[in-house]
Amino acid sequence: MINSAAKWSYELASKIIQETEIPYSSLNVDEKPSNEQIYDQMKKNLIVLNKIAKNIRKKRIQSGALIIENNDIEFELNEQNLPISFKIKERGDANFLVEECMLKANKITAEFLYHNIKSMALIRKHAFLNDNKFIEITRYMINNQLKVEFHDPKQLNDFLIQLKTTHPNKYTVTILL
Questions:
Q1: pTM for this model (two decimals)
Q2: The dihedral sign for the CA sequence 122, 126, 130, 132
């Protein structure tokens, strides 16, 4: 059971993580906990939790986790519900914090089930890239004059990070498994 003291948006949580000063009086009804002392403690807890989540993410990436980031696109619609403009919703620290906590909770739950009720547990493992997907990715790389040799997810992840760093906003690589 979860008993929430307040309902914070990703945007508000990201601002708090960035240590932007947001006065208690400026919060809307849903965002406000019952008093300012609880608000101050929640802010401190969020900042600490974010530091923990960043360390968990760093270790996960160093151990070879494949990170594929996709930003959401938000469309503005006209009266006929046709898109007239769009903006890319950037993911902030709060998004990554929630993602890491969810991944950690899923992993701990799966490990508990596996070790305690193995005969009844359903464990899902992601398959390795199949040959068709590998050929598809290789063809994309060749067509875009990108040279990469990867034999494991860590090498692929390192390549994608390098590509994002050296050519921001130039290439989008989406892998559909």
A1: 0.66
A2: positive
